[in-house]
């Protein structure tokens, strides 16, 4: 069964606010991570956050970190320590209080981190985002702890983070409200003569006013020739263009995405037919969701709609294969794609988006984020799924 | 997050300048006996690649292969779907996509006789990718090439300077506007976004911080084309004595930022003002070349005695951690000359004076 978030659901989320709720969430996380560590024989987890993948640092610290490199050292027992290359991060790390200490780190001389690790005398350490650890830091760790085995804990943390608590869902509902506002801003500014990058500027301003920390956004404008989305270009909108976007604000650490397309002026028959096809695929994806479903199942349900209508080739790697992706502290978690047998348990959150090119109207973008419920899914955003259009500046 | 405008405009940077940048690296490789250099970048930091090609890695990771002679090739984990856009906004003709850099490197170089491959600034690469490249090229010598591209970017060209001046005016104006009286932190950030992205920037990062006496810190870092600008200001600071002291410290540091000056020189110049800050404050003075602003200079191994080069554009920052745990910063981006610093982001404050 598919349900849609409403004001009542969102309002109930406020019960997940406050110091007591924070403390309970922190305890829950520590328990989940320590259970996984025990299963994997880890004496400590070291969450590494390069500039573009800070989700695991955030999971432990619940603080917005801006350093080029940051860490949280989480031992099997004892104090949790955070490190960042940027000293302006320290006040926030300390204020939130999820870690017991916060210090600056020099990537060329990370002694505060390596000394602390050595004191733990660990036999086996799991490093989340080990695959992204810069060589100078990897070398420093190996040199400081020659007898210690370092393994990747990236999958371990991905697994721990997949099921969202009520505390997390409350934050994701705030992201959902910002998604809706961002999309409203997007449609509001559309008119012939406006360059793509100015659309982005207005949307960014609107969602930042609402407290978004960051946003990932791709865009494309044009007609049937559009094959995909990119960063914005100087191209100016023309009447008849379909303007596509995926808009992904981050609130309180949590990312959520809305995918929509809007036409400048009156939509064409092809654009309407395209919308109907993509909407049917989104609905098929939603209908497939229930606890225990796999990412493959959700992708296949969407692709089967394209195949049934004779557009199956547009679901292949020659065009776009990804049919959505997980959401949370990272914007692009497990991919919804045929062949990915990852199980999506209750309270996993992901977007269903069959975005791809077809000859009907070029690249079409449509999708909603959903939560897996006990008997289906809950659509997290309130924005209607329809082919939007703007008459601003377009002669009748 | 890079989601702004990417433009390749020959009126801004002519084709021969792009060619000369690559040619200079290739001459360096030939002189060092390196057959091909690999330059790594990701969505967070890819400015060496951008300097040679204008490519923007707006998501995921990429690697530019620069042979000692011949065409450069961009290797990326991004889908081939974005190749047309990447060709449109860059000087690169050949782009190869794949799931792993090991496979991409094997495909590119595996057929050639074993030689020497250089990894530009390998210490900053993910160690796993360094290992992948080594494994992909059995028989090849793998050499680290620190500063291969980055060092060349330290002093800007005339065209780069023109773009930096344009960008600096915008960043300075945005920081100034964001310090309007009584705005919420969110409204300050929104003001920056509207101005900076509306002016066609590729990237902007805004940070607001709490400081004593109800003062709010606003730090703005923006990327315009391939260059970076930074300015930090204080809002609601009229009644704060320490804010005036910090301003005096920044002014002194900027005045000292002439060619040949060092970080120590700047710190000494600012010291008399900083001595007047409240007890228990931890103040720092530093400069970061605009080429390193993507990572705020945190990956640059720089000694306090390194001199400022004439013709460099650098951000000079004075920042403070207060005993109570608050943070504040003031910063401007300046052009370093033999005769002194030219403040590029401070024009609005100058006008206000």
From TrEMBL, chain A:
Residues 1-25 are annotated as: Disordered. CDD domains: APP_MetAP. One of its GO terms (molecular function) is aminopeptidase activity. Residues 1-17 have a biased composition (Low complexity). InterPro entries: Creatin/AminoP/Spt16_N, Creatinase/aminopeptidase-like, Creatinase_N, Pept_M24, Peptidase_M24B. Keywords: Aminopeptidase, Hydrolase, Protease. Gene3D superfamilies: Creatinase/methionine aminopeptidase superfamily (3.90.230.10), Creatinase/prolidase N-terminal domain (3.40.350.10). Residues 29-163 form the Creatinase N-terminal domain. Residues 171-359 form the Peptidase M24 domain. PANTHER family: AMINOPEPTIDASE, XAA-PRO AMINOPEPTIDASE P-RELATED. This is Aminopeptidase. It comes from Streptomyces antimycoticus.
UniProtKB/TrEMBL annotation, chain B:
It comes from the Bacteria. InterPro entries: Creatin/AminoP/Spt16_N, Creatinase/aminopeptidase-like, Peptidase_M24B. This is Xaa-Pro aminopeptidase.
């Amino acid at each position: 069964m598919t349900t849609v978030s409403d004001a009542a659901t969102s309002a109930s989320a406020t019960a997940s606010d406050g110091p007591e709720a924070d403390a309970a969430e922190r305890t829950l996380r520590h328990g989940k991570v320590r259970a996984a560590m025990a299963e994997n024989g880890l004496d400590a987890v070291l969450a590494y956050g390069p500039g573009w993948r800070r989700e695991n640092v955030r999971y432990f610290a619940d603080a917005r970190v801006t350093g080029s490199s940051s860490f949280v050292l989480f031992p099997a027992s004892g104090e949790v320590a955070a490190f960042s290359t940027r000293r302006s991060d320290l006040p926030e790390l300390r204020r939130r209080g999820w870690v017991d200490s916060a210090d600056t780190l020099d990537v060329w001389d990370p002694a505060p981190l390596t000394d602390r690790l050595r004191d733990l005398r660990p036999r086996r350490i799991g490093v989340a985002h080990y695959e992204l650890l810069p060589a100078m830091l990897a070398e420093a760790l190996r040199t400081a702890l020659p007898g210690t085995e370092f393994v990747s804990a990236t999958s371990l943390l991905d697994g721990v983070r997949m099921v969202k608590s009520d505390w997390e869902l409350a934050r994701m509902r705030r992201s959902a409200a910002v998604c809706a506002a961002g999309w409203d801003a997007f449609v509001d500014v559309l008119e012939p003569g406006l360059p793509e990058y100015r659309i982005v500027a207005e949307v960014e301003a609107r969602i930042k006013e609402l407290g978004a920390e960051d946003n990932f956004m791709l865009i494309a404008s044009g007609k049937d020739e559009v094959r995909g989305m990119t960063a914005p270009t100087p191209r100016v909108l023309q009447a008849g263009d379909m303007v596509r976007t995926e808009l992904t604000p981050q609130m309180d650490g949590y990312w959520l995405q809305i995918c929509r397309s809007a036409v400048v002026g009156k939509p064409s028959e092809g654009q309407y037919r395209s919308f109907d096809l993509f909407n049917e695929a989104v609905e098929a994806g939603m209908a497939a969701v229930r606890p225990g479903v796999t990412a493959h199942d959700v992708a296949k349900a969407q692709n089967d709609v394209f195949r049934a209508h004779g557009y199956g080739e547009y679901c292949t790697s020659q065009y776009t294969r990804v049919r959505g992706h997980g959401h949370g502290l990272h914007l692009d978690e497990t991919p919804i794609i045929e062949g990915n047998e990852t199980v999506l348990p209750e309270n996993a959150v992901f977007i269903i988006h069959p975005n791809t090119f077809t000859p009907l109207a070029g690249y079409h973008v449509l999708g909603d984020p959903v939560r897996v419920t006990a008997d289906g899914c809950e659509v997290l955003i309130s924005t209607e799924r329809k082919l939007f259009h703007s008459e601003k500046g377009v002669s009748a | 997050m890079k989601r702004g405008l990417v433009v390749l405009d020959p009126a801004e940077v002519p084709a021969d300048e792009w060619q000369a940048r690559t040619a200079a690296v290739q001459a360096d490789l030939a002189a060092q006996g390196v057959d091909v250099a690999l330059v790594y970048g990701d969505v967070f930091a890819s400015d060496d690649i951008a300097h040679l090609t204008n490519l923007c890695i707006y998501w995921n990771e990429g690697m530019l292969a620069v042979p000692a002679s011949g065409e450069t090739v961009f290797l990326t984990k991004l889908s081939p779907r974005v190749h047309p856009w990447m060709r449109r906004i860059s000087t690169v003709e050949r782009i190869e996509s794949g799931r792993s850099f090991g496979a991409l490197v094997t495909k590119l170089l595996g057929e050639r006789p074993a030689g020497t491959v250089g990894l530009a600034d390998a210490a900053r690469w993910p160690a796993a990718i360094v290992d992948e490249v080594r494994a992909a090229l059995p028989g090849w010598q793998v050499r680290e090439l620190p500063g291969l591209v980055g060092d060349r970017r330290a002093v800007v060209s005339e065209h780069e300077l023109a773009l930096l001046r344009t960008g600096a005016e915008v960043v300075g104006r945005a920081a100034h506007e964001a310090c309007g009286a009584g705005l919420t932190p969110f409204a300050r950030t929104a003001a920056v976004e509207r101005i900076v992205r509306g002016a066609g920037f590729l990237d902007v990062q805004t940070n607001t911080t709490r400081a004593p006496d109800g003062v709010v810190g606003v730090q703005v870092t923006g990327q315009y084309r391939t260059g970076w600008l930074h300015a930090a200001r204080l809002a609601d600071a009229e009644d704060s004595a320490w804010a005036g002291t910090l301003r005096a410290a920044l002014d002194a540091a900027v005045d000292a930022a002439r060619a040949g000056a060092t970080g120590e020189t700047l710190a000494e110049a600012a010291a008399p003002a900083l001595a007047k800050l409240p007890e228990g404050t931890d103040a720092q003075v530093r400069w970061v070349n605009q080429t390193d602003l993507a990572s705020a200079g945190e990956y640059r191994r720089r000694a306090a005695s390194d001199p400022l080069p004439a013709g460099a554009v650098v951000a000079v920052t004075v920042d403070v951690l207060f005993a109570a745990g608050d943070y504040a910063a003031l910063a401007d981006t300046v052009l370093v000359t033999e005769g002194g610093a030219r403040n590029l982001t401070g024009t609005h404050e100058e006008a206000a004076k």
